[in-house]
Amino acid sequence: MTEVTRVPIKPVAKGSLTKLWLGIIVAIAIGAGIAWAAIPKGVSLETLVEGTGPTPSEGDVVFINYVGKLTDGTVFDESQDPPIPPGIFPKGNPFPIQEGAAIDGFLEGLRQVQKGGKYVLEIPAEKAYGANPPEGAPIPPNADLIFEIEVTEFMAEQDFQTRLGALQQMMQQQQGGEGGPGGPAGPGAPPAQ
């Protein structure tokens, strides 16, 4: 017959079980924190003023006023009204919704805006310039960016191109009208006889 060897089990010391469970909880919390930090951050769009209508589609041109800041509040870029006659284009700077027109995070945010809306767009470094900001820019490597955006309008690319053609034609007529055939004499031109 086989013989069983018995090993006496010592009782668990008072408080040891609590310490074991606390250790397990701390290990789980640390693991979850590491996992959370490893998840890539996404673009965040906070609505300050609700816009109206649809959101822009791929190929549309969005007109915005904006201020670009670093997370410490340093302004690195700000929109300025383009020097064009009023009435041809809406106020604001035009941004086409197409790959390569702006940093990925900016385009991702613009795809979610509405006309008349005001937003705060937060872009993590991975969706901004990453480790390689533009040469000479006041943006440090791996900087998260914040944009305050006001959307004035957006339009289809075809409408934008039509208006751009009208603007170019108007500018050519103005240039041709100064001292050109049938136009007023420019400075230094001989007087008409």
Describe the protein in words.
- By secondary structure, the chain is α+β, with helices and mostly antiparallel strands.
- It contains three helices and six strands.
- It has helices at 16-38, 104-110, 157-177, and strands spanning 44-49, 61-70, 75-78, 93-96, 118-123, 145-155.
- Strands 1, 2, 3, 4, 5 and 6 form a six-stranded antiparallel sheet that branches.
- It is elongated and about 115 Å long.
What's the SSE blueprint?
Elements: H1 16-38, E1 44-49, E2 61-70, E3 75-78, E4 93-96, H2 104-110, E5 118-123, E6 145-155, H3 157-177
Antiparallel strand pairs: 1-5, 2-3, 2-4, 2-6, 5-6
Q: How do you describe this structure in short?
A:
This protein has 193 residues and is α+β, with helices and mostly antiparallel strands.
Question: Can you tag this structure with a few keywords?
Answer:
single chain, 193 residues, 3 helices
Largest sheet: 6 strands, antiparallel
Unreliable spans: 179-193
Strand content: 15-25%
Helix content: 25-40%
Shape label = elongated
How many whole angstroms does the radius of gyration measure?
Answer: 31 Å
Average pLDDT confidence is 82
Number of E-type strands: 6
- The secondary-structure class comes to alpha+beta
Number of helices: 3
Listing every helix as H and every strand as E from the N terminus to the C terminus, the arrangement reads: HEEEEHEEH
End-to-end Cα distance? 138 Å
